[in-house]
Amino acid sequence: MIRTHFISGLPRSGSTLLSGILIQNPAFHAGMSSPVGSLINGTLEQIGAGSEFYSFFDEPKRKKMCRAIFNAYYEDLSDKDVIFDTNRMWSARLHQLVELFDDFKVICCVRNPAWIMDSFENIYRKNPFNYSKMFSPANRHTVYSRCESMVSGGIVGAAWTALKEAFYGAYSDKLLLVDYDLLAQYPEKSMKLIYDFIEEPYYEHDFDNVELSHDEFDYTIGVKGLHDVKRKVEFKNRRTVLPPDLFKKYSEMAFWLDTAGTAASVIAPKPTKIEQLTEGK
To answer: Which of 56, 76, 184, 257 could disulfide-pair with 235, CB 3.0 to 4.6 Å?
Structure first.
């Protein structure tokens, strides 16, 4: 029987890197964001209250249809023992997942939000003549407007609120938050903790030869290099491209550093470590 887990969390926080490591294990399947979550959500919209078809479906049938979508999408992976489906919004759908799967875990990739903004800004500046779909003409003018658009209902804000909901929710024990910096600095130690969390025997990964590419997807949204994974897993310290006030502002959004009020497991640096990174030490 195939076991199912999920990868969620924040953008620019290592989910692609984690998938690249996981797929070295021949028993595992993992990839970048899949359409399964969106397909399930779209189906529920079509057969939910307010739809002309609502009366044709009861609760058990809606549940069966959602599970059927998942099964159909991964039908050709019967040779795998474990499937990791990736979507940043799974953390806001735990109440659905607990109804669809008997046992699952969600690995949530996180990172100091200031470095997330820094990463997006770096990519933006590396593509000066390619205006991506990430920003509109109204909000692409400055680093301040670009960051604000990503947080206020944008790609970062949506994932951040979904993760925060799960972190303090009824099913927080299903979560393992993995900080990108620690995964990059200590990949073997981090992966052993992940294997322990999902209760699978550890596989000896090659952290010098990690491969995963999604150039075609990045090209379609006009953000070249968005999902690039370097072959060697390593952490490279550098100074931020953000103005100091923005870096300070977004650093304060790392709510998971305080584990009071949650049953989630967290692999993250201590606050003092975050302060050192902020200062570029």
So the answer is: 184
C-alpha distances in angstroms, 210 versus 69, 75, 183, 203, 244? 30, 26, 13, 14, 33
Residue 129 token pair: 């003549």
Which 3-state string (H, E, C) describes 42-72? HHHHHHCCCCCCHHHCCHHHHHHHHHHHHHH
Q: 169: closest CA among 218, 106, 236, 240?
A: 106
Those residues whose C-beta lies under 8 Å from the C-beta of residue 104, and which sit 6 or more positions away, are 3, 4, 5, 6, 97, 174
Q: What is the pLDDT of residues 111-156, one digit of tens each?
A: 999 999 999 999 999 988 888 888 888 889 999 999 999 999 899 9
Work out the burial of residue 187: count CB atoms within 10 Å of its CB; fewer than 13 is exposed, 13-18 middle, 19 or more buried: buried
Q: How far is Cα 7 from Cα 16, in angstroms, rounded to an integer?
A: 10
pLDDT tens digits along 247-259:
999 999 999 999 9
At 178, which helix (H) or strand (E)?
strand 175-179
Instruction: Give the chain's domains with CATH numbers.
Output: 3-278 (3.40.50.300)
Q: Is 28 helix (H, G, I), strand (E, B) or coil?
A: strand
* Total-model pTM: 0.88
Q: How far apart are CA 281 and CA 271, in angstroms?
A: 14
Rounded-to-5 percentages of helix, strand, coil across the chain: 50, 10, 40
